[in-house]
Amino acid sequence: MDQVGFLWICATLFILSLSKFSSRLRCIFNYCFYMVFCNIAALFPLLLFPFRKFDSRNALSAAFLGRFVARLMGLTYQIEGLENVNLSQGGIILINHQNVLDLLGPASVVVKKQLIYYAIFGVASWTWGSLFIDRSNQERAIISLQKQSEAITKKKIKLIFFPEGTRNEGEHLLMFKKGPFKLALQCRCSVQPIVVSRNNFFRHRSGGERKISGRGIIRIMPEITTTNIESDSLVTFIERVHGEMDDVYQELNNRKISL
């Protein structure tokens, strides 16, 4: 073994030993390790791209490896509502967005265009059909979304939106953006909310506050049809979905603390 390899092993062992005594250092180490691994896992969709171009199934390999390494670090999820999954039709999926632990699956994700420059992971997300939106140009963003309405109805594509528009690790969900709801009314497709309980796995809390364990809960809620919802009821519809998701978010967080 050369000196460089020996020094790397010593440095890794030193960091691991310190993490036993410092919860803050452990959070930082877990985050860095997971981010590096995500970019390594993103290489697999790149290899699949020549055979399945812009296919959402390309994300499954990265998602599988991501969940595997999350379990190695002590993070597990309990999934509820699998009976509500409907693969026979396209639709819009709404998920609250917290951090890089949010799950990936066989669906196209709508994200901000800056993500494509995010190392290997950004390019890989392009290969599995992610839709990159320019938030600074609302007109162009709307046109990009409108082009997806045909894919939802004819190709039965599932589009994943983070309706809060940004990461949120607070006690309540932020107000939702109108974009995904306008698209749902335009193509008359269903909306399916998915709520992920709050997690503190990568977040250090000082002051002696109790830390939540590395176990989370994901609830897949029933689909909401939009066939009878008119465009002038858009705001009411958004408030309804937001209220239902926020109630489930509170419920899951209270249950998670008691686990």
Summary keywords:
seven-stranded mixed beta sheet; 259 residues; alpha/beta
Number of helices: 9
Mean pLDDT score, rounded?
76
Distance between the termini: 45 Å
Helix content: 40-55%
Structural category: alpha/beta
Main beta-sheet annotation = 7 strands, mixed
SSE arrangement, N to C:
HHHHEEEHEHHEHEEH
Unreliable stretches (pLDDT < 50, length at least 5) are 206-213
Strand content: 5-15%
Task: Strand order, main sheet: write it out.
Answer: 1-7-6-2-5-3-4
The rounded Rg comes to: 20 Å
Shape: globular
**Count of strand segments:** 7
Task: Briefly say what this structure is.
The protein has 259 residues and is of the alpha/beta class. Helices cover 44% and strands 14% of the residues. Strands 1-7-6-2-5-3-4 form a 7-stranded mixed beta sheet, sandwiched between helices.
Question: What this model shows, in words?
Answer:
By secondary structure, the chain is of the alpha/beta class. Helix content is 44%, strand content 14%. The chain has a seven-stranded mixed sheet, with helices on both faces. Strand 3, helix 5 and strand 4 form a beta-alpha-beta unit. 27% of the residues are buried. About 3% of the residues have low confidence.
